[in-house]
């Protein structure tokens, strides 16, 4: 029997001649990683990787992405299969607990989520402190953060029962908080959750119903939202998820850690892009202006980027964007928005960009945010609420990662190192002697 050569990587420090052999961690899918944990201790060396281009920050069993082939798996299941056959709460269960639920498990999970959808009446008073034109993401950051003050006695990150309770509370309450943020911005009364409705039906009801007249949830809108939420539910170690992990790694209050994730998601390079895409399409306005915007995106001296294009991991079509693009045709038609000029403009923009050398050379394809806003718009959701929709869907991903991290025996506080490039040690100069 031939002995299998151990998978290792050897690092040679050419300035000292010292070398070190590092073990390689072999994943189920994806590139191998060499384990540098002993590097500083043994060699006095740090690795330098701004933006984490080549650094795996953790082991995870939740989501896998193959960016070259455009594959996205949640717990091993292709996202397109889940989007077609599953529901958001079923996927939420899968992400949190690793397996698809049985019918009984799903019913009991749904029951727990709906029974956590109400918010404490005192939470409602936070909304009135916000000016009517506050961005709903700013309100979300403030109000979700405030939950840490309401549940401080039952959010022990080391207690598995309280961890679960926190996850269920956040998934239940995030739609109620989102609905209230919108109602506050338009000056309408808050709508309480209704346990008889589905997760997305409940959200639509809290966004659009008014006490003065009956409101019927449109099943097409309900299903479209559910599918969008499935597609946005998790995306492994993206900026907001890594933020939740980093914030939570100090055993911080989990509501506060998730709030940090919301803040990170809001950035236009991340979840904030869906709002920016719509603004960009409106600014382009007409097919005749597309080339001007493409030229601006290519100009190194212009900070403008084509919003909804490009991705750190996908170097081909984002599988979520492909599904949403297909959904657009169907949903816009069913909701009576067929021929939406902004959708035609988006299709044309994609076509022109994907023929351009600049985008081809850099593997810049439409991402999840390019078409999602067009569906939200057709559902009557205002542009400023788009990133809130993303935050609702991603809450389960953040929580799945937080649960995974907190139950990991290797878990310790995350504390990156740095390469210091500032002033050398120097003497203090008294104020009167400074020139
Ligand atoms: N328009 C024009 N040029 C771009 C774009 C774009 N949208 N995206 C990347 N590039 C260029 C970039 O200038 C760079 O060119 P060069 O090599 O000549 O310097 C090259 O492509 C590589 O870009 P990068 O910024 O080094 O790539 P990154 O992995 O750091 O950034 C990104 C990824 C998503 C932040 C970026 O593509 C971007 O800003 N896209 C627009 C915003 C967007 O749509 N964000 C949503 C991302 S998907 C959903 C989510 O994560 O929430």
**Rg, nearest Å:** 24 Å
What is the makeup of the main sheet? 3 strands, antiparallel
Write down the secondary-structure element order: EEEHEEEHHHHHHHHHHHHHHHHH
What is the overall shape?
A: globular
Beta fraction? 5-15%
Oligomer: single chain
Report the total helices.
Answer: 18
Put the structure in a nutshell.
With 435 residues, the chain is mainly alpha-helical. 50% of the residues lie in helices and 6% in strands.
Index terms:
mainly alpha; single chain; globular; binds carboxymethyl coenzyme *A; 18 helices; 3-stranded antiparallel β-sheet; 435 residues; 50% helix; 6% strand
Task: Give an account of the 3D structure.
- The protein has 435 residues and is mainly α.
- Helix content is 50%, strand content 6%.
- It is built from 18 helices and 6 strands.
- It has helices spanning 39-43, 79-85, 88-97, 103-114, 121-128, 136-150, 160-186, 199-208, 219-232, 239-248, 254-265, 273-284, 290-298, 319-334, 341-353, 357-361, 368-378, 386-406, and strands at 8-12, 19-25, 33-34, 63-66, 71-74, 77-78.
- The strands form 2 sheets. The protein has a 3-stranded antiparallel sheet with strand order 1-2-3. It has a 3-stranded antiparallel sheet with strand order 4-5-6.
- Strand 2 (19-25) and strand 3 form a beta hairpin.
- Helix 10 crosses helix 18 (386-406) and helix 14 packs parallel to helix 17.
- It is globular.
- Carboxymethyl coenzyme *A binds at residues 51, 238, 269-271, 273, 297, 305-312, 362, 364, 367-369.
